[in-house]
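Hi P.,

Sorry for the delay on this. The queue was packed all week, but I finally got your sequence through. Input first:
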Amino acid sequence: MRASQVPRGQMTRTDVRNRPWSVRGGAPRLAHTPAADGPAAPKRDLMNEQIQTHEELFTSGAYVREFQPEGPANPFAADYARKRKAVIDAVAGVDQRILDVGGGMGRMSIPLSARHFVTLTDLSPQMLDLARPHASGRLTMRVADARALPFDDGGFDYVLCIDVLPHVPDPATVLSEAGRVLRPGGTLIIDSTSSLPLWTLAYPRYLGRRPHRWLQIWRSGGVLPEWRARVRHRRRRQFVDYLAAAGFKITTLRGFGPRPFPKWHLAVAVKQWQ
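Then the structure:
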């Protein structure tokens, strides 16, 4: 599958391209494009290159061009915004040590760095470049894989892992790494996309206009047909069981999306095992 063929339900292009965040009216927004350091690299037509692996979707730069979680063309924009606010509000106190795993352009890291010490990581260097103008003594960036984090044991008070699990075949590995880098009693804030597909009915733009595609999407747990080999949605019970098996105690579990059948489940969980 070529990146140019990825449907807009999950990778959403808008007229406004991803650009680094600035603060306007108290809320972070995408602003100017940073100048390159040194000579410009030769331009590549990434959107027309073959994406060989799921990881390449992120490391190639294709995803950074397309992903607009709160853009007007994204059918989930309002729920993305509500979920983002809930994550930020769940981090208590000041001067906490926070690791944002797969945090991309810094949608949560940048506002949190106003009162905490945040390490923003992502598999995509291009995503991190969007947040780089906001780097400071309170916000640092590092390319990292959620399955093998390059940090010492027990070094963080909070770990954020938002919009990551659907892209990971084995959540146990990611949860093990999150638990390793958290101090005992530290907090993990993590979400999972529901495989109960009734939530798709609330997003007609996601389903599209072709009934045969509706059936394909419902049969695959809400995953678009083009993404079935790349993305995994899970039941709420599975999500809860993964957290318990990794040594986390859930303190809150909240749904986002249609009230009876949420698209996302967001958990705030405390590390129990030392």
